[in-house]
Amino acid sequence: MTETFNIIRTARAIVRVTDLAAARDFYVNALGFIETEADNKHVYLRGLEEQSHHCYVLKKAETPGVEVISYKVAREQDLDELAAFFTRKGMPVKWMEAGSQRAVGRALRVADVSGIPVEFFCQMDTVQRALQRFDLYKGACMQRIDHFNCMVPDVQKAYDFYIHDLGYRVSEYTTTQGDDRIWAAWLYRKPSVHDVAFMNGKGPRLHHVGFWLSDPMRIIHACDVLASMGYAKNIERGPGRHGLSNAFFLYLRDPDGNRIELYTGDYFTGDPDFEPVRWDLDDPQRATFWGHEAPDSWFDEAMGFVDFTSGEMVATTEATLEKTKTGFRHLRSAERALKRPRALLSGRIFSK
Ligand SMILES: [Fe+2]
Question: Which CATH number fits domain 7-125+140-304: 3.40.1080.20, 3.10.180.10, 3.10.580.10, 3.40.50.150?
Answer without folding.
Answer: 3.10.180.10
